[in-house]
Amino acid sequence: MTTETDAVQRSDDRGVDQPLAERLSTHDWSATPLGPRETWPQSLRTAIDVMMASGHAMCLAWGPDRTFLYNHAYAPMLGARHPSAFGARFEDVWADVWAEIAPLVDATFRGDTATFQNMPLVMTRNGYPEETWWTFSYSPVRDESGEVAGLLNVTLETTGAVLAERGRDEAVAGLRRNEAKWRRLFETLAEGFILGEVVRDSTGRIVDWRYDEVNDAWYDLVGIPRGGAVGRTIRAVFPGIEDAWVDEIAQVVDTGGSLRFTRQVGTLGRWYDGVAQPAGDDRFTIIFTEVTDRVLRERRQAAMLALSDRLQHETSVEAMALAASAVLGEALGADLVGYGDVDAAAETITVEGDWTATDAVSLAGTVRFRDFGRYVDDLKAGQTVVIGDCRHDARTRDHAEALEARSARAFINTPVIERGSFVALLYVSSASPRDWTEEEQQFIRDVAYRLRSAVERLRAVEQQEILNGELSHRIKNTLSVVQAIAMQTLAGKADDAAVEEFGSRLKALSSAHDVLLTRSWSAATLADVMRAALASFASERVRLDGPDLWISSRAAMSLSLLLHELATNAAKYGALSVAEGHVAIDWAVQGDGDQAVLAMRWRERGGPPAAEPTRRGFGSRIIRMGLIGSGGVKQCYDTDGLSVEMSARLDQVQQA
């Protein structure tokens, strides 16, 4: 029978640090949660034996208290904590980074495996904070009953390339020397493990590689019966596999460097994440896990973000439909994707254009649903139709030939229902049978919802533009009628100047209407209102300076009339009456919150001296009413020209 002392002696013979081996033998384990060594279970003895004999940096946390042990290669990573860390609690040893690694440790004791590449940790292992980076794998170690009793950490500090290289070399050498001992632990790993050797052609170029050893997890992760890989090459096991699986391993062997990968085996439709490392001569190791769900989930998330961005920039329904179809087709690896409007009564769909891959035939045009099966009633009822194989589904098997001609051996039809009516359809088709996952179905539903919302927003904008155009036309007609009535009424009763002034004010109101209509009559920017009100004057001699600011429709009307009066006076008597004159308008928000005030200033320069009018008419009253009709106006008649300062509370200016 193998004894603990024998195990330590054999570890010493393999070059394990003598003081650490002695500490394992002489430590008072009865004072620890592990208890006396003679009571240790064989699973713990084997794990320690493999760890102590390995040249790869390893540590072990065992039992509910997670008693911490480690081997010689791990000791330098502890810094000043070695050797007092030996036999202590895992949490106490790494207290400074426990917040980061505790969730990983807990997950491992629940049976999960975690692998990380270059994980950053700030440690105080030598009495001062230092940045370190680690590549490591937490694997559960099971006891005789099959329960998780410990955590084995196979780690590599990548802070120093020299230590990393030495750790890898020692780990490979240790694995070779101790194959019989780590076999049991090797087979309990949840991660797939490969020990392989490259195959070279007559010129020495690597053209393939052979499986020398794989664990049980490898077979489970790739879905191949046990025993069907060892001694065979990867090209023989997976005919048609991507060349990158050979080329990247050739790079590892030829350069002696490790490689982290996330790659698909296309023939399996599965994604894997792992690390490949050289193992000396033409050999290498790979440790990996399957990440298909994660990769596909990330693809769908990225596709949804890309779709949101594209829908914001498209300006037509057809472009939106094609954008959504392309995102879906690429994310799901489909053959045909499209969107169309539905005539539920006629049971037809009209498609402007769709996305196709390879040799798929477009569905563009108007198509009858019943030409392809008996599922339109399900769509009318708002049910998503999911067909994994049209040859076997009762609703489609009599029309399988027609469906397959459209690359729809398998398909999903997602109806869009509005106010109880079937109005549109998003379809995704595959030329081969397919088991559609619930995640894929939900992804398609989400895309359909976003697309329909974007289409409805676009159509609402188009409808609003039509309504605004019609409203603008009617308002201008009304103002024209008002102007005509006024002209006839005032004919012979008022001088021509008064009649012309009245007409100009109506035009100022009309320009304000035009600005507001472009914003659906809700609000407009201060600068837009100014430009519209001053458009009929020498606008090139009017300079505007101020922040972007939205004002209400009520304030826009008042401001348009006010500016029109000021500009009219400037053109008759002020700066705009001479070629060298100009007007400067500036504005700013003063104060914060409820006390914020909009302050605006009109300054005329380069014209004749300003003189206060001797008669005050309606125009003067409009100016005195200010920005919102409540005053707050100060006029200064200087020799340099007229200056007008106006102010009003910002919330009143912006209040609808």
Description:
Strands 11, 12, 13, 14, 15, 16 and 17 form a 7-stranded antiparallel beta sheet that branches. The chain has a 5-stranded antiparallel beta sheet with strand order 2-1-5-4-3, with helices on both faces. It is an alpha+beta fold. It starts with a helix and ends with a helix. It contains 21 helices and 24 strands.
Question: How would you summarize the topology of this molecule?
Answer:
Blueprint: H1 4-13, H2 18-26, H3 42-53, E1 58-62, E2 67-70, H4 75-78, H5 90-93, H6 98-109, E3 114-123, E4 130-142, E5 148-157, H7 161-177, H8 179-188, E6 192-200, E7 206-214, H9 216-222, H10 234-237, H11 244-255, E8 259-265, E9 270-278, E10 283-290, H12 292-313, H13 317-332, E11 336-343, E12 348-351, E13 354-356, E14 365-368, H14 376-380, E15 385-387, H15 400-405, E16 410-418, E17 421-430, H16 438-490, H17 496-517, E18 523-525, H18 526-533, E19 542-545, E20 550-552, H19 553-572, E21 582-590, E22 597-605, H20 618-625, E23 633-638, E24 641-649, H21 650-654
